[in-house]
Amino acid sequence: LEVMGSKVSKPPPEASHQLRLQAEKERVVLSVKEGEVDALRNASRMLREDKAFVLEVVKANPYALKYATTEFMGDRECMLEVIKTDGDALWAASEELRADKEVVLKALERKPGALRFASEALRADKEVVLV
Q1: Count of alpha carbons within 13 angstroms of residue 83, beta-carbon side
Q2: E strands within the chain?
Q3: pLDDT the model gives residue 131
Q4: Rounded distance, CA 19 to CA 124, Å?
Q5: What does the alpha-carbon distance between residue 129 and residue 70 come to, in Å, rounded to a whole number?
Q6: What is the pLDDT of residues 4-41, one digit of tens each?
Q7: What is the DSSP letter of 86?
Q8: Spatial distance between the Cα atoms of 51 and 71, rounded to a whole number of angstroms
């Protein structure tokens, strides 16, 4: 490539890919913050499988959870982070996590009404119900 008489090398393909990926990340986060939660659904598979990215998006707007992967919804650490932002996010947690007493109690700290998303056994547990 020649620009104004000087030879300039093209960036390697992986650099171009990284720039596109970063631009997509920024676009999706901004869209979700503005209420367009389906932006996560339209994100590339690579981004939807990136736990750190999905966590960033979901913390910006918990309603985006409906477009997260089932692996994300079953990831205890990720769901605990989301639940710290919005206890009602328990609705999206895997069955296993909705039966996890610690996860449910964290959700109830933020939003007592999240009890409706807990497993049947935990909804009957006095310790949980009395929170």
Answers
A1: 33
A2: 2-3, 6-7
A3: 77
A4: 51
A5: 27
A6: 555 655 556 667 888 898 999 999 999 999 999 899 99
A7: -
A8: 9
